[in-house]
Amino acid sequence: MLGDTIHAVASPPGSGARAVLRLSGPDAFAAAAVVFRPAPRRERAQLEGHLTAFDRPVPALLLAMPRPHSYTGEDVVELHVPGSPLLCAELQRAMGAAGASLRPARPGEFTARACRNGRMDGMQAEGVLLLIHGEDTAATARGAAWLSGGLSAAVARARALLQDALAMLELGLDFEAGETGAVPAPAFGEPLAAAQRVLADLQAELPHGARGGEVLLLGRSNAGKSSLCNALAGSDAVLVDGAPGTTRDLLRVDLGDGAAVWDAPGDLDDPRLWDQRALQLRDRLGAQAAAGLLVVDPHDVGALAPAPVPLLAVAFTKADRFASGEVFARACVAAQQRLALSLGLPAALPQFATSAHTGAGVAELRAFLRQQSRGGARDLGGALRPALEQAAAAAARAASALAEGLGAELASVDLQSALQALAEIDGSHGIDDLLERIYARFCLGK
User: Fold this and answer.
1) Are 114 and 125 in contact (CB under 8 A)?
2) Which class for 258: exposed (0-12), middle (13-18), buried (19 or more C-beta within 10 A)?
3) Cα(212)–Cα(229) distance, integer angstroms
4) Among 55, 245, 259, 300, which residue's Cβ finds the most Cβ atoms within 10 Å?
5) How far, in Å, CA of 104 to CA of 387, rounded?
């Protein structure tokens, strides 16, 4: 809630040389004065002092950052204290007892307040998340670029191009071809094509998912990966076919709680050219997942390619096709032994006996994947992905409508949809933006 003051330990959990206790809100300075001397004044400063919540003074440092020039845009105070979890807990208790408006912060609430107060937008907030959870130099550099406004600028460019195309279409609706006010096709076609390219680049810029929550389904073709994927999702999320090699693309299925599985092409004994390319794509893009789930049909334990990611568990499928649970269990043991020889698969790897047809073992596997995801990074860029996908799809529909001669009215509706999708990211599209572009680029009185 705006108007109250929040607090949280902003340093890594556990003991350490130093801990940071952060406060943000109108009572931040008053709350800090409860436990710190000298009492801070509402001015930007770095104060050396001591904590007063104990029998003996404990040296500490205070950073004072008055609004609006702080991370959240509110009054912010940071207490840098010895890194004792018990000490931090006692400081929070003492401050909370002295101020009714003080409460613990929710996850991400400092950054949420920064967005609400205009200190950053949603795309810069994603940059913060990527900086925190990025696992390599490229991810860190991308997070820094997002935080400094690089992603925001790209979205603004896409929006501007879509508005240019829409402005041209709106102007041309009142005129027939050959009339003085008619708008030539390149006037709206070129900015629309450019907007589509920018949106495609933006989608490619987003991480394919969070390490920790994203699991790639691996195994032989027709091992039951797509059926298992649908069973885990509880819906027909991906196409299922009995013919080997049906799955050619990577398809992401959300399982909730930050967990997701990627259905992917399976290994074949004699892959054709297109199959080889699909498998190459799987290994290249799938390597960005956190781990792999090896899906095995005990009836068909053939050759398998080396996994592009560490294996998280093994899911044996098609339990309903065996005469009994005991027969299925023996088949799984035999399959495990063969996999141990061919892949060096450790015996301690978690194993799940499943049937997509009856649902056996599916709930347990889903719970396991969700539990594993909680220890990993969040879905980096995930808050932006749906809006960008909607904008790109709407822009594609507009381009298709124009190419097929379905009319500028239909294309205009799709462009409005694309702009509304982008507005979900930063709320920046409105009728005033469109009118300003129309009047700025044309003199309507001539």
Assistant:
1) yes
2) buried
3) 18
4) 259
5) 31
What is the DSSP annotation of 131-185? HHH--SHHHHHHHHHHHTTHHHHHHHHHHHHHHHHHHHHHHHTT--TTSTTPPPH
Dihedral Cα 215, 216, 218, 224, nearest 10 deg? 80
For 440, the token pair is 């700025």
The fold adopted by the segment(s) 5-116 is Gyrase A; domain 2 (3.30.1360)
Q: pLDDT per position in the chain (446 positions), as tens?
A: 457 888 888 887 667 788 899 999 999 999 999 999 999 999 999 999 999 877 788 899 999 999 999 988 999 999 999 988 888 888 888 888 876 578 888 777 888 788 788 787 766 777 776 666 665 676 677 777 777 777 788 888 889 998 888 888 776 565 555 444 455 666 777 888 998 998 888 877 776 544 456 788 887 877 788 888 888 887 765 544 444 444 445 677 778 777 888 877 776 656 566 556 655 665 655 555 667 888 888 887 776 766 667 777 888 988 888 888 888 888 888 888 877 766 666 666 788 988 888 988 889 988 888 877 654 445 566 667 778 888 888 888 888 888 887 777 888 888 888 888 888 776 554 444 433 433 333 322 22
What is the pTM assigned to this prediction? 0.48
CATH code, 214-373: 3.40.50.300
Domain ranges of the chain: 5-116, 150-206+383-441, 214-373
Taking domain 150-206+383-441, whether its CATH number is 1.20.120.430 is answered by: yes
